[in-house]
Amino acid sequence: MPYDEPADSSDQRTVQPRDPRADAPQSERDRPRPAEPRHDADNHDADQGQSHDDQPREQNTGNDKGGGEPAKKRRSPIMWIVLAVVVLVAAIGGGWYWYANRNLESTDDAYTDGNAITIAAQVSGQVVDLAINDNQFVHAGQVLIKLDPRLFIAARDQAQGQLEAAEGQLGAARAALELARVTFPAKLLAAQAQRDAAAAVLFRAQSDLRRQHAVERAATTQQDVDQATAAERQAAAQLGEAEANVKQAQPVPQNIDQAAAQAKQLEGQVTEAQAQLAQAQINLGYTTVTAPQDGWVTKRNVDRGNYVTAGAEIMALVSTQVWVTANFKETQLDRMRAGQAVNIAVDAYPGLKLRGHVDSIQLGSGSKFTAFPPENATGNFVKIVQRVPVKIDIDSGLDPKLTLPLGISVEPSVELK
User: What is the pTM of this model?
Assistant: First the structure.
């Protein structure tokens, strides 16, 4: 191995051997250095001025500076460029997200809502026909169930007979009223005529009696006097009877009113019989239960052969009108107004995108209308952010082949423009 000659023999500094790999390519310099062969004693004595500890330190220093430091310098700019790009993308994405959502208010405390009509039997009876099934769509007026109608048919016929009897009695009373209006005035006139005739008879009898007393006793007999006296008394009695008949026949209006009142009473009985017949017909109609409007049959709890009682719930009918009830926080209502557009995402159908608008905001938080509203004036107070129900009508996006069950979760986003 070649060595550099010392400049001065008196110089005590040791001369380091030259590394032959220094002029080699970089790839060869990065390879591990092979172990050098052992020197004999002469060579060892010649190299006694060389420090064994300096050789590996020289080698390690060359490896660190020649191989590691350039690689670190090559990687550092790339790392910083990547980091800068990531930060820039994050800033752009955050800014875009803020810009896109600055006029939106959304909540996940929202669900579909609608009218669920309770169907109940109006009369009691046994179910003889079941015309529907669970979750079936029905139209308004479509038959749902039928009850046994025989008892109600009998009740209707009985009410019909009572009505006809009352109408017959009313007809007789009305005829009697018309007759009374003619008869009672005529009876009064007849009684007055009889009274006048009786008065004339009495006058003649009194005249005959006075003549019998005025003539000489020889010109008449006691029998004629007695007959004249009896005729006068009989005529007086007949006059009294005629006057009594006149008094009896005088209250003509009262007698006519009495006949009219009787007819009126029978008219009331006819009206009552008509109402009973109408009720019987209604009850007979109640034996056939029909759908009050279009909708889907749900919660059916009746079957053919069951006995149902009046007022008992037999099923529910969900109407076709569906809206969204969203419970927004009170801090989200500052810019929310009726008529603002809403985008609605349905959890059950991710591909269904609905559009709607804010219909109204309830005038009270949900806790205000609970069964036991909180009493904030008692005890310790802890402020809790309240939620207010907002009704959102669905304008478009519904799929006729895809029904929206009531109560499923949705996420509305209100555009606050």
Answer: 0.59
